[in-house]
Design goal:
Blueprint: E1 15-18, H1 26-31, E2 39-41, H2 44-49, E3 53-56, E4 61-65, H3 74-87, E5 89-92
Antiparallel strand pairs: 1-4, 2-5, 3-4
């Protein structure tokens, strides 16, 4: 089940995203996390089709805004998370151990 990665967590204003760039290859982005099960890619246009937006806070990083908290609206939060998964495609997975 991948969609929990797309649920807004308490005290988050949005979902953190890295923009694809030569400075942040998928493997490099994954290396920033203690546990990473893969890196997925989304298109901003697909995100906006859902009524959400991406706000840049640097040249290589942004925040997906407009998601409800699961506690406030469980149906909509899970529906949007599910749709984000549908629009996502895996671009990197760790080598099997």
């Amino acid at each position: 089940m991948l969609y929990p990665a797309y649920l807004l967590r308490e005290n988050e204003g949005g979902l953190s995203v890295n923009l694809a760039s030569p400075q942040c290859l998928p493997e490099d982005c994954a290396a920033k996390f203690r546990n990473c099960y893969g890196v997925a890619s989304l298109k901003v246009g697909d995100i906006r089709q859902l009524g959400l937006d991406v706000v840049l806070d640097s040249r290589t990083h942004g925040i997906i805004i407009g998601l409800p908290y699961r506690e406030d609206n469980p149906f909509l939060a899970e529906r949007l998370a599910y749709l984000l998964v549908k629009y996502s495609f895996i671009v990197w997975k760790p080598a099997k151990m």
